Recover the amino acids of this structure.
């Protein structure tokens, strides 16, 4: 029994890392653009397929294709911003959030439908030579493809934190998220900041997708489920807060996998939902959030 | 339009709809009509919460699905159909009350996120718990007739519309609209905003459950979790927006437009239809926040369409929320 619990704690942490990675992008778009992109999970799904086809068609290892996936989906993010979210960001902040939610809801279903059309509804997993290998810690197994997901998540969070706190662009980004009108007055090109922040958000979703198709599996319908997880994580960490997101992701992963052990695997989403509602009821601004928005 | 004229007109439409259902043998037309009415009922029920009370819920599919599931299980389990439907509506209303109390403490965007989370979590869980397909048994299948579900869907639609019309004039409905227009101001003048929101949530959910019952009755076989699919929320919100959010007949107009438009589309590939309507939705939200009702009014250059709406503006896409 305790071995089962220990194993599920490890699995929860590994999965939670990916939750954190997915949520990073969602939180970035929300914090900077005030855009809540429900299609975030669909961008993850696209990234997952990109990595999958890079592997099956061109034999590219998912870690080799990771920069490629990042760059391609960065481009897709720019196109989505120019074609869609640019119009949403013209409105004032409250309208913006609501409209982005509705607009990206439409986008999510459209992308899902297109994915069924072009990639078929089959579940796909990248199976490399090292896919089944694992470290063992006593009787606990740590599959390396899943560990890689956590490592990538932590690295992405650190790099993002570094960009935000140490670079000139990061400064512009933070200024824009605090108050875009005043940022614009100081000469920051707000549109450009929006564009790049959204592109980074899409690219982060995509590399999470790479890791998902390596450690877990992708299919056209996975998007909403991942969006749900990302939303929960972002709310747990506090809307608008970038810090603590990976930690909140791991917390969610832990709650889910412990709920699977104690209540039953079918109810893991219910456990997550209950956690979500409790946190929203008592701390509407999350654990690390600031009271705005 | 003067009230007696409107009532007579509505009655005529109703009689025509019943007669149509009884006389038309064309299954394709009956199916389309039934689908339109189920969607219209669902969208109208969403409109009570989203349009009247101004609470944009993205979890409406949960109540539709629960209604469908309970009706189907009880009905195929041997209970009388009216009992099954009534139980489904009541249980869904109670469930909505239980979920609504924590959910409605959330404001604006948090409410939308919370309800979306509810919808997705319930969908995934339903898929986990009922993985098998639900089919009508052979003897029911042999006697399956499109007219029954058609008439039931019509009845559900009429009930939903009547509830909307009644709400639009009653104190209850006015309270909901006060919450929509300015929750803080309403609260300050002594309106119990939470009670009105909860009432809107529960009524809307119970009516959605009825629409779900119509779906359970109409469908020969489906995966139980399909009725919980987020696509139902999407379509309901979509047609409410297309038709005109917060108006009485906007959701109905939007549903007819949606179902007939989908049927007339040159491509029979489902996926492209979703893409098309997804994009249409985007355009409506961004360009015509008042939907067809508003667009028609604007094109005809008159204010009549505006006067017919229950509030003087479509709230959802407006600055204040």
């Amino acid at each position: 029994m305790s071995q089962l619990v220990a194993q599920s704690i490890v699995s929860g942490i590994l999965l939670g890392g990916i939750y954190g990675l997915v949520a990073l992008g969602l939180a970035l778009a929300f914090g900077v653009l005030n855009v809540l992109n429900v299609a975030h999970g669909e961008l993850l799904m696209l990234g997952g397929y990109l990595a999958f086809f890079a592997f099956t068609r061109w034999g590219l290892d998912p870690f080799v294709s990771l920069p490629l996936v990042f760059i391609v989906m960065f481009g897709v993010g720019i196109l989505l911003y120019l074609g869609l979210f640019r119009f949403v960001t013209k409105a004032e902040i409250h309208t913006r959030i609501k409209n982005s939610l509705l607009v990206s809801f439409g986008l999510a279903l459209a992308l899902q439908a297109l994915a069924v059309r072009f990639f078929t509804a089959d579940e796909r997993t990248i199976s490399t030579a090292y896919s089944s290998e694992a470290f063992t810690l006593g009787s606990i197994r740590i599959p390396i493809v899943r560990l890689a997901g956590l490592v990538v998540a932590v690295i992405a969070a650190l790099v993002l934190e570094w960009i935000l706190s140490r670079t000139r662009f990061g400064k512009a980004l933070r200024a824009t998220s605090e108050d875009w009108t005043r940022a614009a007055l100081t000469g920051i090109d707000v549109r450009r900041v929006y564009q790049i922040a959204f592109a980074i958000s899409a690219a982060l979703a995509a590399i999470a997708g790479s890791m998902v198709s390596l450690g877990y599996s992708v299919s056209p319908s996975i998007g909403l489920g991942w969006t749900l997880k990302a939303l929960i994580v972002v709310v747990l960490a506090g809307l608008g807060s970038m810090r603590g997101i990976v930690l909140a992701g791991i917390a969610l992963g832990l709650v889910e996998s412990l709920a699977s052990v104690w209540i039953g695997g079918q109810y893991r989403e219910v456990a997550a939902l209950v956690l979500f509602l409790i946190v929203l009821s008592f701390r509407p601004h999350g654990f690390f959030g600031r009271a705005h928005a | 339009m003067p009230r007696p004229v409107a009532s007579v007109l509505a009655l005529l439409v109703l009689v025509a709809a019943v007669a149509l259902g009884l006389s038309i043998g064309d299954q394709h037309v009956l199916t389309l009509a039934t689908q339109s009415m189920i969607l219209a009922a669902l969208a109208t029920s969403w409109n009570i919460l989203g349009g009247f009370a101004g609470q944009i819920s993205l979890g409406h599919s949960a109540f539709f699905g629960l209604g469908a599931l309970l009706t189907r299980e009880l009905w195929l389990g041997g209970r009388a159909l009216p009992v099954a439907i009534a139980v489904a509506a009541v249980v869904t209303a109670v469930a909505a009350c239980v979920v609504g109390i924590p959910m409605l403490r959330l404001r604006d965007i948090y409410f939308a996120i919370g309800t979306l989370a509810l919808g997705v979590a319930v969908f995934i869980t339903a898929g986990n718990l009922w993985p098998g397909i639900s089919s009508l048994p052979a003897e029911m299948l042999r006697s399956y007739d499109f007219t029954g579900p058609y008439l039931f869907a019509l009845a559900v639609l009429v009930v939903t519309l009547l509830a909307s019309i009644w709400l639009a004039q009653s104190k209850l409905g006015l309270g909901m609209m006060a919450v929509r227009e300015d929750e803080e101001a309403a609260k300050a003048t002594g309106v119990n905003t939470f009670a009105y929101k909860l009432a809107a949530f529960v009524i809307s959910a119970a009516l959605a459950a009825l629409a779900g019952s119509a779906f359970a009755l109409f469908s020969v076989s489906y995966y139980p979790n399909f009725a919980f699919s987020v696509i139902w929320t999407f379509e309901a919100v979509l047609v409410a927006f297309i038709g005109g959010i917060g108006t009485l007949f906007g959701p109905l107009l939007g549903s007819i437009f949606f179902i007939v438009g989908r049927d007339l589309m040159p491509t029979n590939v489902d996926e492209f239809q979703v893409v098309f309507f997804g994009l249409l939705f985007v355009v409506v939200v961004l360009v015509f926040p008042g939907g067809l009702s508003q667009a028609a009014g604007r094109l005809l250059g008159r204010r009549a369409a505006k006067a017919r709406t229950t509030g003087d503006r479509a709230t959802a896409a407006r600055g204040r929320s």
Notes: Chain A touches chain B through 46 residues (CB under 8 Å). The domain at 2-282 of chain A is CATH 1.10.3470 (ABC transporter involved in vitamin B12 uptake, BtuC). Chain A has eleven helices and two strands.
